[in-house]
Structures are given as structure tokens and as C-alpha cells.
Amino acid sequence: MSSIKDFVSSEFSPIKGKTSWASPSNIALVKYWGKYGDQFPQNPSLSFTLSKCVTTTSVAFKPREVKSDHFSFSFLFEGKQEAAFHPKIETFFKRIAHYCPYLIQHHLDISSSNSFPHSSGIASSASSMSALALAIVSMEQALNPELSPIQFAQKASFLARLGSGSAARSIAGPMMSWGETPAIEGSSQSFGTQLAQRIHPIFETFQDTILIIDKGQKKVSSTLGHQLMENHPYASTRFAQAHEHLKSLVTILSTGEMEDFIALVELEALTLHALMMASNPYFVLMQPNTLAVLNKVWAFRQDTKVPLSFTLDAGANVHLLYPKENKAVVLEFIQTELAGYCQGGQYIEDQVGAGAKKL
User: Quick check: is 80 in a domain?
Assistant: First the structure.
């Protein structure tokens, strides 16, 4: 699919069916921060697809008995009615209705659950919106069996993007980019692209242990954070930096140069937080325990030479990244030195994964 109009589906005769998908979250190494238009990124990003932090979503669909201009659906989260989710799903359906006209022809019973605690501080928008998008494109495939695997993946990522930008990168693994960049062939503003180049074996089993520093509501939503880049004094410099970082990271991922990987990924994490501190209004998203952990990680790396690094999302929690061969020593370090900085001593062990799976 080469243009947005290619994602517009025809109307089909409604049918009855059910589909289920498990889709993972992802952690950006090169961050996208700032968007424009219809959920397009101001700069390209590149992420590790996670393995264990997944959302499982089932959609049972059937023809509607009465025609209406309003969408018809129910939603259960972990077996319970959750009316608070309805407005977000309604908004998502409105955004994708032009591309999926069959939605209005069906009633959908949606059921969703997370493999990670709902209040763990892990953003679930990427996993939840990608899982729902995959289920919706599965509906389309049932109506139109001629949809090819490439068309399926691209449209699922395209739709997921309209629910949550980072969800575009949760379709496949072990790494996905989003946003046009000369560094990655086939990259697009409209959907995520699986990194097809050779990846050094050390990154194929890379670990991500997520330290839950703060489970609380974020001080600033991602939507507002992106909006603050519109008049940010450092916006153009940041967008240029992200392009250069992504180009460098593509090379690093193939060579396995760990020192270069660590320096780039940590700089990206700190740049994201620096942008928020320099925005108007400004926000400090780290907590004292976040800074304490970062200093502990730097000291541990210097003392042991173990290639442990960190990245951060737009919040207080810390993602610890390291090779699988160092897992035992890093987990011991976490248990003895870092768990005390986590809320309730909580952390989640995860690793690079292969992407979403149809169940």
C-alpha cells in the first residue's frame, strides 16, 4: 500500500465471526516526540518490541439488526464492564470509519485483558490499540480473503496509529520503525515498518526489566506532551537530532557496538525529559527515585563493566536494557540495590519479542 487511499476498504455484506489477538507493548530507543495532522510523527522513531507485556483482545462481530449512524459495541476489561473506555473506543472508531466502512454494519463485543498489572505504570495504549486494530483488520480479512499478509500488517499498523501513535510499532518484531527516514527502506509516516536489515545476535534476545518507580497518573498526558512541541524553542534541532540518531542506531544494531548503543539510547531518554523541562508549560516527569536509579546504574556499569543501560518513557519508570548473557548479575543487582526504589518493590522482567500473534 503506497498511499492513504489504498487503506480505504469497500463495503461488504456483513457476516458473523470472532477473532482474538495478543499484541505487545514496545519501548522506543529513538523517541518520537511531536506530531502533526492525522497522528503523523514529526520525526522517525525505532523501538524494541516487547514479549511479555501484552494485551489480549477478542472481538465477536455480527450483522446489526437495525441500521444506524452510530457504532454498536460492548467492552469488557478483564471480565468487567468498563464504561470509562467507551469514549476512547468511540473516538477510535470515528477516526477509522472512513477506512473500515464495515464497522458500522456490525455489532462488536470486545473483550480485553493485560498480562501486566493495569496500574503498574506501564503504558498500555500501544498494546491495546494495536490488538484492537489487528482484530478489526481480521474482520476485514474474513470479509475479503484476498487481503495479502503485507496489506494486512500495514493496514493494522495504519489503524493502530490512529488510536495511539506508538501502537504503529507493536505489530511485528523484534524492532520496528515509524516515520520516514532514508536509513530504513520502506519507512512511512502512515504505518510502522519492521526492521528488515541484519541485526546483531546480541540484540535478538535483549532484556528489558521495567522498574516501577511510580504507578500514579502521569503529570502530563502524551497527547499534551506532543502538542508542547509545536512551539518548542528546540523543536527543529530535536527533529534533526532524531534523524541522525536513528541513522546511527541502524548501524549500531547491525554491528553490536555496545558502548555506542548505550550512549545513544541513554541520550535519547534524557533528551525526551529535557524537552519536557524546557517546554512551556514545563514538566518534570522524573521522581527522586528515578534519578537515584540512574546514578546507581552508572556506578554499577563503571564498577563491573556490565553493559547495563536505561531508557525512559514520558514518566518516572525506568527500563533497564541489557544482553541476556548478563541477566543473572543484573537481576541480582536489581534485587539488592534497585528494588527498594520501586513502588512496592515492583519490577517486570521482559525481553525483545517477535510481535503480535493471532490466537
Answer: yes
